[in-house]
Amino acid sequence: MYTRRSLVLALLAASLLPAQDPQPSIQVTGAVKQALTLTADDLAKMPRASVRTVSNGMETAYEGVWLHEILKRAGVPQGSNLRGKALASYVLAAAQDGYQVVFSLAELDPSFIDNQILLADTANGKPLSGAQGRFLLVVPKDAHGARSIRMLTKFEVIQLRK
């Protein structure tokens, strides 16, 4: 049985311990059949892909999961099912710092367009961290890289026509 003093000491000791940060994750929400919260461990179990980019003369090899694979897992229409109302849908990708970009669903479907987009969790064989955040959206065919997002936290699927 705890005495009042031992309880106060236990609470004080617990408050001095470093706070444990929750494991970084990516959320997939909105007009999906199955909302998802994916951690780096979850992504490691999915089919892996890689891309190489060159920026300011420096080549980087990114590894992760194709975004269309993640959307497929959330039940977003793809391939022959991406018709009609679903073509009036888009994905809003958001970063921890508030940066946001938009992609149409057709733009993310490899059966529509040759534009693979990677949710990267490693660069040059090492887990992403620091200013890049734990997750980075890599859009290798974009001319200026403005839609490649660091510190990625969320994909929200939005259907314009109900």
Structural summary, described in words:
With 162 residues, the chain is α+β, with helices and mostly antiparallel strands. It has a single domain (20-159), classed as Oxidoreductase, molybdopterin-binding domain (Sulfite Oxidase, Chain A, domain 2, Alpha-Beta Complex), CATH 3.90.420.10. It has three helices and ten strands; from the N terminus they run H-E-E-H-E-E-H-E-E-E-E-E-E. The chain has helices at 4-16, 40-44, 67-73; strands spanning 25-30, 36-39, 49-55, 58-66, 89-95, 100-104, 118-123, 126-127, 136-138, 152-159. The strands form two sheets. A five-stranded mixed beta sheet has the order 2-1-10-5-6. Strands 3, 4, 7, 8 and 9 form a five-stranded antiparallel beta sheet that branches. The longest helix is centred in the first third of the chain and has 13 residues, at 4-16. The radius of gyration is 20 Å and the shape is globular. 23% of the residues are buried. The model has no long low-confidence stretch (mean pLDDT 87).
CATH topology: Sulfite Oxidase, Chain A, domain 2
Strand order of the largest sheet: 2-1-10-5-6
| Estimated share of beta-strand residues | 35-45%
Task: Detail the poorly predicted runs.
Answer: none
CATH architecture label: Alpha-Beta Complex
Please state the overall shape, judged from the principal axes of the Cα atoms: globular
Helical segment tally?
3
- State Rg: 20 Å
Task: Kindly give the count of domains.
Answer: 1
Biggest sheet layout: 5 strands, mixed
The CATH H-level homologous superfamily? Oxidoreductase, molybdopterin-binding domain
CATH class designation: Alpha Beta
Head-to-tail CA distance between termini: 60 Å
Helix content: 10-25%
Structural class: alpha+beta
Average pLDDT, rounded to a whole number, is 87
Give a count of the beta strands, DSSP E runs of length 2 or more: 10
- Output the helix-strand order: HEEHEEHEEEEEE
